[in-house]
Amino acid sequence: MSTGKKMELDIDGTLISCLFHKGGENAIVFIHGFGSSKEVFGEAFENEKLHFTMLSTDLIGFGESDKPPGFSYRMREQASVLKKVIECLGVKRFHIVAHSMGGIVGIELAEMMPNQISSLIDLDGNLTIEDCTMSKQVAEMSETYFAQKGFENLRNSIAEESRKAGNESLKDYLKSLVKPRQSHCTKAPFQHYMTQATAICLHVSRTSRSTSATSTARRTKESIPQKRC
After folding, report:
1. Dmax over Cα atoms in the chain, in whole Å?
2. Which of 68, 77, 115, 155 has the fewest CB neighbours in a 10 Å radius?
3. Cα(72)–Cα(119) distance, rounded to whole angstroms?
4. What is the mean pLDDT of the chain?
5. Torsion angle of the four alpha carbons 70, 72, 78, 83, in this order, in degrees rounded to the nearest 10
6. Residue 106 C-beta-side C-alpha neighbours within 13 Å
7. pLDDT tens digits for 168-183?
8. Domain coordinates of the chain in residue numbers?
9. CA distance linking residue 186 with residue 42, whole number of Å
10. Closest-CA residue to 20 (of 11, 9, 10)
């Protein structure tokens, strides 16, 4: 069974959480979407019939990767960090499988590494920043409105859509949208982050790691393998 190994890479002082499985020469790089994380592709790592080398990361600001306030959170910068992750792990040539917002990151990555891309599969993906409908709505709100009403309004609209469609995946997505503590939303310019469709205040995170001390203690406790690149 090709189970993914959970590990953390130190990319220029920022820890990136990822699932990695070393398989054959053919590789797949998975890129998650808005409000998601590396685990969304977990079933691929458990599929016995897939003999690919596989990589799935939490983009910066999402899941268990660091959420540095000084990072630009532009899609091209996300792709630039992902490129360094790929190079660090020695992946030479690969297919990209990108979902939703990850589609933009995938396109940017393909432009940066044109000679290493075998194919790009865009799953319900965004082709331009204008495709990111939910994050675009958030970007048009003031920070005060988002904190007071906007977040709950978006959550309620998703709940209504889920109810009407009977869509189980929407129900699961709804569970991930937990209102953050105020401190999580004030580390960086709100409008800039949300305009870049990065969900800095809507990330799927099992554990918030807002300080290096907390991060170090947690990583030591879980004994997650780390690699400095």
Report:
1. 50
2. 115
3. 27
4. 77
5. -70
6. 28
7. 666 666 666 665 544 3
8. 5-228
9. 32
10. 9
Q: What's the N-to-C CA distance of the chain in angstroms?
A: 28
Edge-to-edge strand order for the sheet containing 94-99? 117-123, 94-99, 27-31, 53-57, 14-21, 5-11, 226-228
CA-CA distances (angstroms) from residue 49 to 31, 41, 45, 93?
Answer: 21, 15, 10, 20
One-letter amino acid for residue 143 of the chain: E
pLDDT per position as a tens digit, 6-41 = 999 999 999 999 999 999 999 999 999 877 899 999
Which residues are bridge partners to 226 per DSSP? 8
CA distances from 204 to 37, 118, 162, 229 (A): 6, 30, 19, 25
CB of 35 closer than 8 Å to CB of 61: no
**Strand extents, DSSP E, the chain:** 5-11, 14-21, 27-31, 53-57, 94-99, 117-123, 226-228
d(CA 162, CA 50): 32
Measured CA to CA, the distance from residue 52 to residue 68 in angstroms comes to: 32
Phi, psi of 59 (to 5 degrees): -60, 155
| CATH, domain 5-228, list 3.40.50.1820, 3.40.50.2000, 3.50.50.60, 3.30.450.20 | 3.40.50.1820
- Predicted structure pTM score: 0.68
